[in-house]
Amino acid sequence: MKKIFHLYIIGATLLVIAGCNTKELQDLNNNPQAQPTINLNFLFTNAQLSAASGGIEDHARQFNWKTNVGLCSYAIQHLAYLAGPGIGPGDKYTEDFEASFVPFEYMYSGTLKNVNEILYQVDSGFAKGEDYNNLKQASRVLKAFTFHRLTDYYGSIPYFDALKNKEGVFFPSYDKQKDIYMDLLKELDEATAAFTAAAPDGFAEGDLFYNGDIDKWKRWGYSLMLRLAMRISNVDAATANTYVAKAVAGGVFTGNDDNVYVPMAIGPIRENNQNGLSRSFIPGDGGQTTIMSKTLIDFLKGANPSSTTDDDPRLMILCGGIGTWNSENAWNPINTNPVNQKGMPNGKDETMLRAIEGIPANADFNPNLIYSKINPKLLDRDEPYQIMNYGEVELLLAEAAERSIGGLSPADAKAHYEKGVKAAMQMLVKYDPSFAITDGQVSTYLTTYPYGVTKPALEMIGDQLWVCQFLNWWEAWSNYRRTGFPALIPINYPGNVTGGVIPTRLNYPTGEISGNPNYAAGATKPNTWTTKVWWAGGPE
Questions:
Q1: Is 390 within a domain?
Q2: Residue 532, number of CB atoms within 10 A of its CB
């Protein structure tokens, strides 16, 4: 019946066409509701929004829940997972296919698809009627950011041939991470230099990050260049030197006003506009448990856990206390005394925790009444979604100076370190006015833990980068894989799939393995969680 129906439509159409003149045929082929050209600024807005979600509609929560939370937050021991809603493969190094697959599957078909279409329209000349130069350069920066995250997760990925279906490339070849990084740095170098002074009105209206502020776009481009250059500094010192110097000369972030956030909103569409990371945790939505790791709580409580005088002032900002969060608006803290905050050890099951806490098998065991939780004020549905911050930039400059990279001097490392710690502490006020940390509090903390004295300088920088990336756990995981800081104790839970090694990369999706004939020749292998990517000492 369906075939007959289609034939009927075709036959009727042919009869109509036979009676039409040329003008009528031309009118028939024009859609009266179509726009004469695509407004690429709208497409760019969608690309920016998808940086917080992976870009697949209805999956902003899934994108963060599976990998950012489920793998990364536990692997780098900011959070700890026992059981309950959601997943926690990063806590005990247990396999979860979605945690590995989601970034690969979402980012190509989301952010990258959108920015690639913008670049295609501009470069091909199809986009007319507006100056799209700044839109083009901003799209190149966003594309470089997205590809850098993808290759950091997997190693070799389709890059140069990716997203070329218009050119008939349906099975892109894989490229080595080293080659990808060289091109990403080139792209950032060219794009930041090519921005023009003023943004057209359309770009300003469509730009979610900076509202068309070109100076801030340039600073993000150079800050991203700094991050990428430092990421390869252990395996390609010459290139790192070159691009750290370029980034500093070009001008990196100068304050928390430069931080990159994706603005979120309650509506109109929950799946697209609300913060997917927050939704991962909110009871009745994702409902992922919010218990904090012993590793992080112990760090924030300082050298003397029985006193608050040496605490990190972020302790009762990142942590909301010990209590229950049973519904979205019903956070019930039962202990907010900083001295009493307690993180849960990673890699433990209930039997192990009962033994640690001295709770008999026949007694009630409720981890919510024992361990500290994330502060719910960080997890509102309309919280901004952070992409990159000034604190990270200053801490990377401190590391570069300490290691004499890019012409920076060890004599300047301390100043960059202290600026980085201050920025990381004071940026949290964006989430809630009560999170304000004064200059005096920062100064007390820096005096209590003087640079290069409490621990070796590079370890202190690595520790602070780790805390600085709370909520941005993808990046905390990458920094840890590169630096080895903080000095985490790996988990060797029975039956884990890594042999007690903290995961070092994500596995490719099974559909890509079976569906792309170029996988066998070009992918990073073996395809396991313990194979290192190039910048961490693995294959190019």
A1: no
A2: 14
Answer yes or no: are the C-beta atoms of 415 and 423 closer than 8 Å.
no
Bridge partner list, 325 = 331
pLDDT of residue 364: 95
Structure tokens at 52: 């917080």
> Please, what's the largest Cα pairwise distance for the chain?
91
Closest to 49 measured CA to CA, from 200, 204, 219, 207 = 207
Of the listed ranges 27-36, 67-76, 404-413, the one predicted with least confidence:
27-36
Model confidence pLDDT, tens digit, residues 511-521: 999 999 999 99
User: Which of 331, 348, 378 is a domain's end point?
Assistant: 378
Provide the domain limits for residue 347: 291-378
Residues 52 and 388: beta-carbon distance below 8 Å = no
Both tokens assigned to 350: 């209930």
Strands 319-325, 372-374: pairing is: antiparallel
Report yes or no: 304 and 91 within 8 Å, Cβ to Cβ.
no
Distance, in Å, from the CA atom of 67 to the CA atom of 63, rounded to the nearest integer, reads: 7
Q: Report yes or no: 202 and 134 within 8 Å, Cβ to Cβ.
A: no
**pLDDT 10s digits, 240-281:** 999 999 999 999 999 999 999 999 999 887 777 889 899 999
The angle formed by the CA atoms of residues 207, 212 and 218, to the nearest 5 degrees, is 105
- Residues 421, 449: Cα–Cα separation, whole Å: 11
What is the pairing mode between strands 260-262 and 385-388?
antiparallel
Q: What count of residues does the chain have? A: 540
Give the β-pairing of 174-175 and 157-158. antiparallel
- Does residue 386 belong to any structural domain of this protein? no
Residue 2 pLDDT exceeds 90: no
How many CB atoms are located within 10 Å of the residue 175 CB? Answer: 18
- Give a yes or no: residue 356 inside a domain: yes
What are the tokens at 387?
Answer: 């992409």
- Asked if residue 284 is part of any domain, the answer here is no
Asked whether 302 and 310 are in contact (CB, 8 A), the reply is: yes
What number is the average pLDDT over the span 349-359? Answer: 95
Q: Nearest-CA neighbor of 376 among 424, 330, 436?
A: 330
Rg, C-alpha atoms of the chain? 25
Any residues with CB less than 8 A from the CB of 492 and at least 6 apart, and which? 347, 499, 500
User: What is the three-class DSSP state of 199?
Assistant: coil
Mean pLDDT of the chain: 90
Both 120 and 209 in one domain: the answer is: yes
Whole-number pLDDT of residue 20: 42
User: Same structural domain for residues 224 and 333?
Assistant: no
